[in-house]
Fold:
Amino acid sequence: MIVDRSHVPWALTTTCLTLVAFILYWIYARTEPNGASGGSWQGMLFGVAGTGCMVYAGLLAWRKKIPKWQVGSAQTWLRGHIWISLLSVPLILCHGGFRLGGALESCLMLTFAAVILSGIYGLAVQQILPRVMASNIPAQAIAPQLEVACERLRRSTELAVQKVCESAFLEPFSSLSRSQGASELAVTTSGINPSKQGMPVKTSQHESFSPKLELSTFYWDQLNSFLSSDANRSHDLANPTLATARFARLRDSVTEDLRPVIDEMESACDERRQLLFQSRIHGWLHGWLHLHVPLCLTLLVLGLLHIMTAIYY
Structure:
């Protein structure tokens, strides 16, 4: 969620309630003979209020999964999740008297700190990375449709190469099959079919070279695998400098009429790099949840244990 002007009322309310909580704690700590304690009725009130804030923050996940809980807009719940979660920090600190306590309480406080810090990190990346995507990735796709977009790009490029290469557009056979295909292409212009004449094919290096076959080979050996949806950053064409050099070398080795399709291939390669970068950013945007959610569940378990222990003793 982007923090904008709509968050101002929430931020002001959270700040005011935090100041009120600190003032009440200061009065309570000064008047209590034995100092602040989570077991006193004032400390219990801080604990109940802080726990209530955390419960509200945790209800966001349930609201998304249970249709009957669709009360209020999603934006309101997200804003509340952010600011009410932050409000729980001073309330819990006041509840514990700004001390860690015993072993269980120390684990609970450390887990609580990890939950808050991971949430702040997630909020920070959501402010920065969308702007990075907007300025550096002109060719964006909807995140769930990245594989579809890659396949569409690969297929359109393949059809463009196949159109200009015609019979030289060979499937990814072995190098021997390709050399045989080059020999057949080289003798086609002579009107002699060597298989019918019963004589071996003898061609020089110059005669066996086919620009169309060169283009087809580059596509099958390098570009096709990079345009597929399972390509990664280790691919040679993922490096812009290396890709530019290879396309320049290919452009110099073919005839003028094939160069427009090379430009199209290079454009597709650049678009695939952008989609690859988008996939990485998408992982950064949502990867922190793999840490945040388990920490929240751990906090829930430790919180229940703390409550049960406090009631029992």
